[in-house]
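Box S1 | Example of a co-folding query
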Amino acid sequence: MQKKVSKVQTLKGSVEIPADKSISHRAVIFATLAKGKSVIKNFSTGQDPKSSLEVCSLLGVEAELCNSTLTINSTGKLSPSAQSIYPCGNSGTTMRLMAGILAGQKFNSTLTGDESLSSRPMKRIIEPLTLMGAQIEANDFKAPLFITGHELHAINYQSKLSSAQVKSCILLAGLGCDDVTKFTEPFISRNHTEIMLKSMGADICTEGTTVSIKKSELNPISMTIPGDISSAAYFIAAGLIVPDSKITLRNVGLNPTRTGILEVIKSMGANFRILNQKEVCGEIVGDIEIQHSQLKACKISGNLIPKLIDEIPIIAVLATQAEGETIISDAKDLRNKESDRITTVVTELKELGANIQETPDGMIIQGRTQLNGGVEVETYNDHRLAMSLYVAGLVCQKEILINGFEWVNISFPEFETKFEKLNPS
Ligand code: S3P
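Box S1 (continued) | Returned holo structure for shikimate-3-phosphate
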């Protein structure tokens, strides 16, 4: 689907931010492992969490999605489907978390993905799972993953990557092991798995960047999923760069392992406030009020990267409108996302007129540039690129055409409708 985007005069109003994708995945997967009835309110409408729901349903769990409330009735035990093939679609989180669970079952399974997911690296989970005794076959460490169910044993794993998907995979595998499984990462990545497993009664604790887990039975959960800061990020950026804007983003998850974008806009000199902060099911939630601001460039690297990994495409758009040189480094893993986000972001923003250069582990952006537009841009089947280009289009001088805009449905089907409500023209 091709989307036309043209310059807007201003953005005003308030937006309810839809459910967090990462937390939605975990809620459905962990509820499947718990014996009893779990009720998950405000389950994400994105395609990715639906992939997790589909895989869990194929594994025998009873699930009912009514409006946005997901009810799961589980025996706490998985039973294989007739074909034993579990399609994960575009979702890396589904594949990596499920691999950690399926590796330790008494049956065999195959995890498949779409073209993009089948080209993403799985060595990062196959290696540690193999150390735990798992048997996984894959061509060049890429999906499909053929898993022969096997008893697993605990490990003490030092990961070279800071990755919540890898961490969650190993913790889920460790949940069934007799001894203590320990996972250490260089910098802390999102900790929704730790928070949710703990609230479900798992024996799990965190010390610095090490998480330890022991064999545990999970209790069912009753929870409301907070809004996704990764979806809020597009409104944050648009509110900052579209002239005279003032918008309020309601119900945004503010877990400190996810709020890197707020640290960045603060150092860029953005005018924003957090309101109505509270805790919901162990996660911090609040509203963000944001206003058009004169931005200055900043440096983004090190332990900040995992806290904003999915926001780098939209931060790159912001940086084109900030005075000075923004340098993003230590973000090599961006090349392994739904697209190679270093190359795709740089290529497409250059097309719009940005002064941006690729580096091996990030990018350098010189601002402030008036984006010209007047061109067609590509999404490379990547939802975050589609949404970032849309926001860039709001400040381009001439209309732009985005090819493959339908990919927004992976995380945020309501994206455009929500934007249109803020634009009075
Ligand atoms: C996710 C973790 C991140 C992120 C992805 C979702 C998760 O990946 O990029 O969109 O839900 O755990 P990594 O942990 O592999 O960096």
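The chain has a mean pLDDT of 98. The first strand starts at residue 2 and ends at 5.
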